[in-house]
Amino acid sequence: MTVTVGFIGLGNMGNPMAGNVLKNGFTLTVFDKNRVAMQNLVAAGAVAAASARQVVDKAEIVLTCLPGSPEVEELYLGAQGLIECTRPGNVLVDMSSVLPSTPRKLESLAKARGVEFLEAPVSGGVTGARAATLAIMTGGDEVVLERVRPILRTIGPNIYRVGPAGAGNTVKAINNMMSSVNSLTMMEGLIVGLKAGLDLETMHAVIKDSSGNSNALARVHRALIPRNFEPGFKVQLMNKDLDTFHSIARELHVPVSFANIAQRYQQAALAAGLGEQDTSVIFTLIERLAGITRDQG
């Protein structure tokens, strides 16, 4: 029997993830409040739903991908929410980046109704979503993970069960904090080099073959040299994930320093009206602080 799948939330990440589920032969029903976001998937063979309720009526396993905890809790817990409307025995998988308290709450309420729930936030950005190379950090029952693993495998090959509900988003927040700090230190270093008269391409080549190399260096060719700051991961979303990280650290009484500095840059970008652009756009803020004009860079 073919497993029927639903996907709710077709933004920058959700749309290509849903597309990869569809490409792998699953019967897919999709919904997004922005109906334009469904068009490419419908053209590829997905069924457009008129509402989130219609998705859970049609699908045995439903994936959701939304901006944050408020949106997820409204979808799952609001009037005619997913937990209330999903048939007992079916599975809800939330792939959003949220506070760990959200999946804990959702799992408990879902289980009370006989509905299975799994949190499964992802890492790898829009590039990874399109290429189906995302890392997936699941929290919840292992039996539920095994049931949905064939679907998750269409989204990314690296699927981890990191613990109970809430653990997945804890790891995700830690990862994004480290990614943000890493990228910002890379950008600060390169700005020092530019101010010293060094060539950006040359610095990239040297550092790539040296101990300073990291995933962050890929931004040089992807964003910094072409000045392409179209969102792979938006400033406002990184700021939200750093809020999550700080919330976790505060609850656990862990002092953190680098995350505070990283968030100051996100806040500066938000204040400059750059919240919808990729986090790499912070490079332009550091340039200005250093007194570097575009011609010098």
Concise overview:
With 297 residues, this protein is an alpha/beta fold.
| Mean pLDDT metric | 96
CATH topology of the largest domain, what is it called? Rossmann fold
Shape: globular
CATH top level of the largest domain is Alpha Beta
Cα Rg: 20 Å
Low-pLDDT regions: none
Describe this structure in words.
This protein is an alpha/beta fold and 297 residues long. Helix 9 (167-195) packs across helix 13 (258-271). The chain has helices spanning 14-23, 39-43, 52-58, 69-77, 82-85, 101-112, 125-131, 142-152, 167-195, 200-208, 219-224, 235-251, 258-271, 282-290; strands spanning 4-8, 27-31, 47-48, 61-64, 91-94, 116-119, 122-123, 135-139, 158-163. It is globular, with a radius of gyration of 20 Å.
